[in-house]
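Please, structure for the following, as tokens.
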Amino acid sequence: MKKSRLIEVLRSFSERELRQFSKYLASPYLNTQADVARLYEHIAPALRQNKDGALDKKQAYQALFPKQTYKDTEIRLLMSALLKQAERFLVMEKYRSDQASAEIYLAQACRERKLTKSFHHTLKTVRTRQQKKPSLDAYTQYHTSRLYAEEYLFSLQENRQVERDLQVWHDTFNHFFIAETLRQICVLLTHERVAEKKYDFVLLADILKQIKADEKLLDIPAIWLYYHIYHTLIGTQNEVHFNQLKGGIIRYGIGFPQAELREIYTHAINHCIRQNNKKKDAVFLRELFDLYQVGLEQEAFFENGFLSRWTYKNMVSAGLLLEEFEWVEGFIYEYESRLERRYRKDGVHYNLAFLYYCKKQYPKAILQLQQVKFDDVFFNMDARNLLLKIYLELEEYEALDAHLNSFEIFIRRKNITNPHRTNYLNIIKLSRKIIQLNPHDKAAKAALRKEIEAEKNPSTRAFLLDMLK
């Protein structure tokens, strides 16, 4: 059972969702199978405590039916029924969080039932809410367009002779279409670079022509942001557009859903990283660091209330590159409770080790790394790579040699894809050459320098060149 799709789904539930799902199953309207609810109550404690003992089919069956002989088919059917209920619960949770769609469905239901008072009350409620707390993303334009459509259809029922102005219906849908198309194009352009794949942007030229002809379209925040992200990506006066993008994030960011705002920040952050790698200009590191700080204030990087271990690590790295040691240490402890629970202890130990490494407090860094027990293979490699660097810095070549051997075995045993595999194998190979190098052999040293300079990973290249001096 523990490797089933059911357990995979339930493990994704937060503590609040585990409690709510219990209430969901207790409702006769939503669940008519009492045994399904009983199965969930049996396995829920194991999910909370992260223990696999109760996640055994036979044990679960005996707990539910103590006087019956085990029947594999019966427990499988119950598991399947519970999985369907869990998936329906996820749909309901998603629906409950999408107030705009719920309001449109309510307006549609009122129109279909000819509930005049309720229909007008619903429209008034929606527009009052939008004025008090405006949403600026593309889908708000889409929802607004759908409300105008419902209003138009309702008016046909009441009086077909009324003169109607439908321009705003068309305009709001057009704004949605332009913004969402630009958003998709920005995603595809980013994917082109990573996957080395070309996409055909059928309507891009027409959209850019339309914006040029009617610059008022840039008054729509979603169009503004994705228009400037697009130009930042293609490299035409990209710093001008990047500055506009930054201003737009600060000005409009709070009006976007958290997931979409995180996507917008990712485009801006990736631009800073690309420019820093290309131009070696600390200005872009500072821009990156500033974006992380503003994003924290806007809660842009959180998902279900938590920071991913990668975002946490990237923020620490950005601060350390600028030697913002005090800020980094404060950040590590302040946001410890917002880190994913599963990776919380390891995340803190690893990032403290990285901080101490950058401050050249190597014994402290090693002490922190000794407490890291990463289940995640990539974080495990990062920790091993950091220990490699410490041994190389300390010229602890005997310990380093043993570490390089175990590190290489680890990489070759794991199913690690490129470019990670190549990068780590390269740093192992080049580190071996550094410790085996005869310091008096100038020709060998020059040849090794040339080999290191050909290394594609900029951080690996910079570190190894520094070690070769």
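The first strand starts at residue 302 and ends at 303. The chain has a mean pLDDT of 91.
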